[in-house]
Amino acid sequence: xxxxxxxxxxxxxxxxxxxxxxxxxxVVVLTRRPAREREVAWDGRTWGPWxxxxxxxxxxxxxxxxxxxxxxxPANLRAMMDSRVHSTEIVGExxxxxxxxxxxxxxxxxxxxxxxxxxxxxxxxxxxxxxxxADVPDYWSYSVEMARAWERAQEVADTPHTRKVALxxxxxxxxxxxxxxxxxxxxxxxxxxGPVAGGGxxxxxxxxxxxxxxxxxxxxxxxLRGPVNLAAPRPLPQRAFMRELRSAxxxxxxxxxxxxxxxxxxxxxxTDTELLLKSRRVVPGRLLAEGFEFAYADWPEAAGDxxxxxxxxxxxxxxxxxxxxxxx
Length: 328
What we know:
Low-confidence stretches: 320-328
Helix content: 25-40%
Order of helices and strands: EHEEHEHEHEEHEEHEEHHHHH
Strand order of the largest sheet: 3-2-1-4-5-6-10
Number of helices: 11
Distance between the termini: 42 Å
Radius of gyration: 20 Å
Mean pLDDT: 92
């Protein structure tokens, strides 16, 4: 198959490109700064020669959008919204204009669309959409509106010959440098992997290999459309999540952090506390109902695999450095 991935140079795009190319598919990545073969220039906003790649392709997987790993200033929030909505709109226009449109368009979305809650998990049928929760920062509602606008841009696209799926993805965990697992592991190795603000908030996640398998599943199943949660079936509280990560690496303790300490840490990492403090209790209702089987349904097994792969990659790269005594 020919698969086009707009915005495919980030962590998730790299995971998909590597796996799908390795499986023998022709993968073309649309990026602002093409640097290698199979990368084609686009700006995520305007028409151009890149549209020729979509015409005649089999699958489009749109991942474009500014990274959420930044401070949530008004300017950054606006840039995140615009980059997601405009890129989705222009991809939809390219598919609509194609003489041979792709059979399926998988559009990245986010599990952040669901409410901050502790009482029950969110699936696609009964999950509570966020934006009106009490006792959370006002700007958290903007993240929900951003997710809804992202999905709405795909919904209204006039692409009658192309099946559309919105990927409400949890955090994708891979051993690659620069991803969320890399950040969390670094904190744990520095001794900072304890509960944050009590640690009761849920973390939803998906192992990188299950993410790829779920994407392949959704491509093959031509009867599935609309929002689909891409998350492991058993999210867990942050305190347990980090405890299992520390155990997998061999770190006995992790210092707890208050909300104020989390603010300082997020500032130092140039990110936002929403990523640490929002309770994302998301489950893959549709995937499970349709018979998808997770290779890594539980975090301890997933963390163990990711740690083994990370150590193997370190050994190959000759990386010596345990960051703290006893952490290697």
